[in-house]
Amino acid sequence: MIAFVSGEVAALTLTSAVLQVGGVGLELHCTPHTLATLRVGEKATLPTSMVVREESLTLFGFVDDDEKSVFELLQTASGVGPKLAQAMLAVHSPDELRRAVTSEDVKTLTTVPGIGQKGAQRIILELKDRIGVPTGVAPQRVNGAPVADDAWRGQVHAGLVGLGWSAKEADKAVDAVAPQAADGSGAPDVAALLRAALRTLSKA
């Protein structure tokens, strides 16, 4: 079990980050929110979860321990594998998932690509008594670098494409949430904008 990985960020893709550890590049599959906190050439420490399959070993990286624990708990529900668990965390924060499950909010869960009404009901039934209540703690940032005003567009667009939406659909969703980015007093919150964009696409 690899509990965390710490090293220099060597590369970033739409769905993963490569961290250099002891001369070895380890690829970690991450949510767009986690990827948005990383910068190539800077050091980072990411909690990790290893998924072992007969033909592969896959490492998933997370922005904090809370995201990791929810990722692992989600997979205890019938029909939820690592890819779907990661998609759930790409659309909703850990606390948003806790609220949706404990309040039996099927509609919120079905905004995740790959989850239908029956799947959402099953997840609620199996996790309601185990997922816990919202912590009220904002997700941690791996580094404190603010997001440039225009940089969020590329990060949200890349996150949407990485989740399976077309470039054209991603363009429309980014334009739809642009007013929200302009309304903020500080640097744009990429994670919040990504989730808003996903909600826009789910309604289309």
TrEMBL record:
GO-annotated cellular components: cytoplasm; Holliday junction helicase complex; Holliday junction resolvase complex
Region (Domain III) residue spans: 148-204
Keywords tagged on the record: Cytoplasm, DNA damage, DNA recombination, DNA repair, DNA-binding
Keyword ATP-binding: no
Coiled coil regions in record: none
Name of a matching Pfam family: RuvA_C
A GO MF label: four-way junction DNA binding
Keyword Kinase assigned: no
Localization of this protein: Cytoplasm
Primary location class: cytoplasm
Domain Helix-hairpin-helix DNA-binding motif class: 72-91, 107-126
Gene Ontology biological process terms in this record: DNA recombination; DNA repair
Source taxon at top rank: Bacteria
Gene3D superfamilies given in the database record: 5' to 3' exonuclease, C-terminal subdomain, DNA helicase RuvA subunit, C-terminal domain, Nucleic acid-binding proteins
Family designation: Belongs to the RuvA family.
Domain notes: Has three domains with a flexible linker between the domains II and III and assumes an 'L' shape. Domain III is highly mobile and contacts RuvB.
Function: The RuvA-RuvB-RuvC complex processes Holliday junction (HJ) DNA during genetic recombination and DNA repair, while the RuvA-RuvB complex plays an important role in the rescue of blocked DNA replication forks via replication fork reversal (RFR). RuvA specifically binds to HJ cruciform DNA, conferring on it an open structure. The RuvB hexamer acts as an ATP-dependent pump, pulling dsDNA into and through the RuvAB complex. HJ branch migration allows RuvC to scan DNA until it finds its consensus sequence, where it cleaves and resolves the cruciform DNA.
Complex and partners: Homotetramer. Forms an RuvA(8)-RuvB(12)-Holliday junction (HJ) complex. HJ DNA is sandwiched between 2 RuvA tetramers; dsDNA enters through RuvA and exits via RuvB. An RuvB hexamer assembles on each DNA strand where it exits the tetramer. Each RuvB hexamer is contacted by two RuvA subunits (via domain III) on 2 adjacent RuvB subunits; this complex drives branch migration. In the full resolvosome a probable DNA-RuvA(4)-RuvB(12)-RuvC(2) complex forms which resolves the HJ.
Protein name, as recorded: Holliday junction branch migration complex subunit RuvA
Upper taxonomic lineage: Bacteria, Bacillati, Actinomycetota, Actinomycetes, Propionibacteriales
